[in-house]
Specification:
Elements: H1 2-5, H2 17-36, E1 40-41, E2 47-49, E3 67-69, E4 75-78, H3 83-93, E5 101-110, E6 122-131, H4 136-152, E7 158-164, H5 165-174, H6 179-190, H7 194-203, H8 208-217, E8 221-222, H9 224-230, H10 237-255, E9 262-265, E10 278-284, E11 292-296, E12 310-316, H11 317-326, E13 338-342, H12 347-359, E14 364-368
Parallel strand pairs: 1-5, 7-9, 13-14
Antiparallel strand pairs: 2-4, 3-4, 5-6, 6-12, 7-10, 8-9, 10-11, 11-12
Helix pairs in contact: 2-4, 4-10, 5-8, 5-10, 6-7, 9-10
Length: 370
């Protein structure tokens, strides 16, 4: 029985020693970078009502939620994602805000997903949400802050891919593609599956020009010249506005000196209707998925009765730490405690000495000799 109890359930693990010290150090660096950019910390509950993460609001499917009941019979869930909870808070406490609301959070999220082998079900996230600001400057700010956050950890070899949901949505709307077919097409194009995407567009009798632009979206990857070259080919107003906004984002990030970390990918699409504008992901060596995910989601806060535009990102701390280890990037952690051994005869002297060391900022562990 005791041997069974000392093991953790599948998908969760203990973290201790040097590994945990490195995790704390990385989180401190990132939080300090975010703090220096004017974001205030917020804490939301570990569990919320199920409807906060419903299909229409959240990014996690219902079957992947940890669900349970309270004593009154209401369905509760462990948070799989911070953003809907923060949006709920903003709708409640900042409903009458007349200026941008800048918030940051950190903590653990829980996803009951067994489809990904080796993926943890409890992971740590740090993120920011910039709400009540529709400007392109806000889009550029969060992308630049994502870059600065990664740089603060010692990471230097990474790339932030930026796309725009309105480019794809504008082309689909012009072609009269229904939402159901748009979701299918979005999945094909984001997965670089051009054959089924073409078959779907052919079945919808989509005109050749729009068909070409939609298929090319999955291959429109590169520096800002990719976006600039597309402007002459696009006539749809929504799609053209998306391209113009990406160009402006690039100009602002260039002012901050971080343009070398940014590339563009118009095939970067989410399968959820969560995102509404600029969308981005940060990739680096050593992990198979993005270490940062973010973008604009202007309809989310309105789900809680307070219409407000919003953008933000989340840093997947556990994946980031894996990347740092695999790239052999050393993380400076706090010194281990100084060990002072005492006997019955010198206990008082050692106690006073330990107090002086601690007063000077040293960590001291006072233990009996032998």
């Amino acid at each position: 029985m005791y041997k069974e109890l000392i093991h953790t359930p599948e998908g969760v693990r203990d973290i201790y020693g040097t590994e945990y010290s490195e995790k704390l150090a990385i989180c401190d660096r990132i939080r300090n970078t975010i703090y220096l950019n004017g974001y205030e910390a917020i804490q939301t509950p570990t569990f919320e009502y199920f409807d906060v993460f419903s299909k229409e609001i959240g990014t996690i499917q219902s079957r992947d939620l940890y669900k349970f009941f309270d004593r009154t019979g209401d369905t509760l869930v462990l948070r799989p994602d911070f953003t809907p909870g923060v949006a709920r808070c903003v709708a409640k406490y900042f409903d009458n805000a007349d200026k941008p609301v800048k918030l940051t959070y950190s903590g653990n999220v829980f996803v009951n997903n067994s489809a990904y082998q080796g993926k943890l079900k409890e992971t740590t996230q740090i993120g920011v949400e910039l709400m009540n600001d529709l400007s392109v400057e806000a889009d550029a700010e969060v992308i630049n802050l994502a870059i600065e956050s990664l740089k603060s950890t010692g990471l230097s070899d990474f790339q932030v891919a930026v796309g725009h949901m309105e480019y794809f949505k504008g082309l689909c709307a012009a072609a009269g593609i229904t939402e159901e077919d748009e979701l299918k097409l979005r999945e094909y194009i984001s997965g670089k599956n051009n054959v089924p995407a073409l078959e779907l567009l052919d079945s919808l009798n989509c005109d050749d020009k729009t068909k070409e632009l939609l298929i090319q979206a999955g291959d429109s990857i590169g520096d800002i010249s990719v976006i600039e070259n597309l402007k002459s080919k696009v006539t749809n107003e929504r799609a053209l506005n998306a391209l113009e906004r990406l160009i402006k984002i690039h100009e602002i990030i260039k002012l901050m000196g971080n343009e070398k970390y940014v590339s563009f990918d118009l095939g970067l699409l989410s399968k959820y209707n969560y995102y509404t504008g600029a969308i981005f992901k940060a990739y680096t060596f050593g992990v198979g998925d993005a270490v940062i995910k973010g973008g604009r989601y202007d309809k989310l806060v309105s789900s809680f009765g307070s219409p407000k535009p919003a953008t933000g990102f989340v840093i997947l701390i556990d994946d980031l730490l894996m990347a740092l280890r695999r790239q052999d990037i050393k993380v400076k952690v706090k010194d281990k405690p100084i060990v002072l051994e005492y006997t019955a005869d010198d206990y008082e002297d050692k106690l006073m000495f330990a107090a002086r060391l601690r007063h000077s900022g040293k960590s001291v562990s006072l233990i009996p000799k032998n």
